[in-house]
Amino acid sequence: MSVISIYYEDMMSGQSITIRKAVELAAQELDQQGVYFGHGTDNAFDEALSLVLYVLGLDYTISNDALDASVSVLDLEKIREIIGLRISSRTPAPYLTHRTWFMGLELYVDERVLVPRSPLAELIYEQYRPWLVKRSGLKILDLCTGGGCIAIASAVAIEDSLVVAADISEQALEVCRKNIDKHDLQHRIESIQSDLFSNLGQQKFDLIVTNPPYVPQQARQELPQEYLHEPDIGLYSGETGLDIPLKILRHAQQYLNEGGILIMEVGESQQRLMETVPELAMTWLEFEYGGEGVCVVEQKDLLHDF
């Protein structure tokens, strides 16, 4: 019997339980069952908190004192059910709650798109400093946008920018447009169905930022079960993980204005990319809050033929 079930039975006998205690019990249950954390949270307590607050109709602005409010028997039963589903199905929490956060912005998410978890949020918050020289009237392309987190965060961080959010998946773009509407950015973000650059015409940009698929196909069977809920098209990129990143490097130059830059995340494929194109001048970024595998390439250095 789960620890939550034990307390549920106690409550049926007249005892009470606080929100704080419910979160602690849920976290204990998640830890004991060995679920994987990495889709919006990196520990059992934060995962449990997100699920409990969702059930109670609360958000992260709740005060610490409010966590001492009592949970009803009905709500504890709902908490028990969602924690049980998280464990049994190994479904990432954001797919159960349909909400996640990126750069402090709440976004809708479902299994048509990846759960946002990019270190690029830190760079966007700093308005891409010091890499962007141009500071006003920026035109930005978010390539492989998925649910639109990078496009939306960029538009919020740089208030007079215009952003194109492009993705090969029309299903992903449906989520992206839902989030664009949620943040009332229809006038500044255009969503385009495009296989990389294929439907962008003659457009040029000051910044291309992309978090493309970069996981080697054979790694699929080695990943935690939680990743199996995410769309393959957003994760995997050929035998080495570099099929799509290399295509982007080959074609990005013609879509950048003079002095423009490409910022691309390739995660754990960083070393393979460096070994594949050693002649390319790539600057690899470090992040204060964790994350790796993000490079900056200047437009002038993308003139080479890879």
TrEMBL record:
Any one annotated GO CC term: cytosol
Matches recorded under InterPro entries: DNA_methylase_N6_adenine_CS, HemK-like, Ribosome_uL3_MTase, SAM-dependent_MTases_sf, Small_mtfrase_dom
Gene3D superfamilies in alphabetical order: Vaccinia Virus protein VP39 (3.40.50.150)
EC number per UniProt: 2.1.1.298
A Gene Ontology biological process term: methylation
NCBIfam families attached to this UniProt entry: hemK_fam, L3_gln_methyl
Name this protein carries in UniProt: Ribosomal protein L3 N(5)-glutamine methyltransferase
Species the sequence originates in: hydrothermal vent metagenome
